[in-house]
Amino acid sequence: MRSRRASAGAAPATPYGQHGRKRSNLPSAPDVPVATSAAGAERAAGAAASNPAQAVPGAGRARRLGGSIGFPLLSLLGLLVTWRVVVTVFTIPAFLLPTPEAVGQSMIENAATLLRHSRATLAEVTFGYLAAIAVGVPLGAIMASWRTVERLVYPPIVASQGIPKSALAPLFVIWFGFGIQSKIFIAMSIAFFPVVVTTLTGLKLVPGDMLNLGRTMGMNRLRLFWAIQLPHALPTMFSGFKVGITLAVVGAIVGEFVAADRGLGYLLIISISQFNTELVFAALVVLGGVGMLLYLAVMLAERLLIPWHVPDPESRAVSTM
Amino acid sequence: MPSTLKPPREQVSRDSVGIEYRAVTKSYGPVHALDEVSFSVEPGSFVSLVGPSGCGKSTLLLMTAGLVPTTTGSILIGGGTVNSPQTELGIAFQDATLLDWRDALGNVMLQIEARHMDRSRYEPAARTLLSQVGLDGFERAYPRQMSGGMRQRVSLCRALVHDPPLLLMDEPFGALDYLTRAQLMLDLHNLWYERSKTVLFVTHSVEEAVFLSNRVIIMTPRPGRIDRTIGIDLPTPRNLHVRRSAKFSGYVDEITAAFVEQGVLHESLGAPDADREGQKVDGRPT
């Protein structure tokens, strides 16, 4: 191109170089001919934008890490202090609201029990959630690909959400027994909905011109799906996956409430019936931890699978230049 | 690039092809989008379609690529009737349609990978194209890190990397600022001048059409028909100076006058303002 322009300049028609000199009062790139100045200016802006980000990567990362861990810790501390103050000031009896220390002590004393029950719950949630994805994603994909299937299948799926899953839980226990299967099924049936909806939505959100582009490259439907539609839909799908994991926990606990011999939900029911409020709270804390852990696992998967999407402050700074 | 390029699957010819439109119509239910459009595009020429929004120019372009079926009539590319998506072409849209998960080079190379062409053979070509449009150093930049103009440049490179005989462009500079679009206009003109491809270019910018084309086809409001065809006799390669020539403004006046006659432009015959035309942004017609 440069040589092309140079030879164009030598032609009797108006030379680029001369033209460039006439317009050389452009502030951003004074020595670049006008024909390349826009590109040059952008290049310069891009370079300038990436420099400060590269200058102190360690400091920025440390600050961000401090922020992402420090602030949640601070709010947790605030909660514990408020809790403790409320118990003392209003002299609340321990069987209604035990002190944080008492709950902590109960956690230590019952560590083995808590671990055993959380392991059971964790298994139910994980299998139920994976089943929800294994069913929800293909179903969403099929609905997104065939309009007839969508019209046929989607309305009943939406309608089924009108019935609370907790109301169906006893039925699932009758069908699948008292063991882990019924809990997996309940967890799956709750987590399934956001997964299928966001898969369908995400796949349908792909711009038509992007698919047209793929067709001019000779891609068939399958290829279009794998190479363009699915990666394009993943960010939307993961928003559903994240809602799904929290719902899967709800599903497993509801199942354990109905009929179970293990799991944190079962432990809750038992310790409430024994008025062991310390253990109730201990189980709730552990349950919160399990839920958070699972959520973090999904977030990690999101980061690994769609690194181009997870916005980090540095790249945002460049793109807004 | 070596002159013995022979892609394994697609027989992409380096020679440009002609297009022929034979009484092409398009209806969407009761709505007549296009009405008996007939014209031809000579091999190696640059033809622009201008017209008011909704006149079916974008539809015509999509039909040329075989992405939208014609209702009646036929389109022939290089003598062959279009009745399925055409692959021996490059296409660019108003939106850059880059894949967010691929960097600039990866987006250009998608064209090669999708066609199962030899990566190692075409990667140098992709890099050359990117540097020709001023993106050297940005091969590894992701779309979110690029400006709208940069993304559109990548899209232009992607349309060209496999060296197609035909280039279809649907308002590719429509969403860009004035300076960026002037730059891209020059880049496209130079690329076309070097490679002698057949280009069908849809735009609503009269100035852009005159600057780039051998021939400008003016379309009427819906149902779209060909109002008139104007041959642009300006020296090539063109540079920014040409826009200040009397001949250039003569063409712009002529096209603007056609729109006034159509009744789609009022009260502005005395001042066919190219800049205002350039800034006019509206949605793409269906």
Q: What is the gyration radius of chain A calculated from CA atoms? A: 29 Å
Rg measurement of chain B, Å: 19 Å
Uncertain parts of chain A: 1-55, 312-321
* Helix and strand sequence of chain B: EEEHEEEHHHEHEHEEHH
Share of helix of chain B, binned? 25-40%
Going across the biggest sheet of chain B, name each strand in turn.
6-7-8-3-9-10
**What number is the mean pLDDT of chain B?**
85
What's the main sheet of chain A like?
Answer: none
Count of DSSP E strands of chain B? 10
**What is the subunit organization of this protein?**
heterodimer
Structural class of chain B: alpha/beta
| Integer average pLDDT of chain A | 81
Helix content of chain A: over 70%
Given as residue ranges, the uncertain stretches of chain B (5+ residues, pLDDT < 50) are: 1-13, 271-286
Main beta-sheet annotation of chain B: 6 strands, mixed
Strand content of chain B: 15-25%
Binned strand content of chain A: under 5%
* Count of individual beta strands of chain A: 0
Rough outline of chain B: globular
Features:
heterodimer; A: 321 residues; mainly alpha; 0% strand; disordered N terminus; disordered C terminus; B: 286 residues; alpha/beta; 6-stranded mixed β-sheet; 4-stranded antiparallel β-sheet; 8 helices; 10 strands; 20% strand
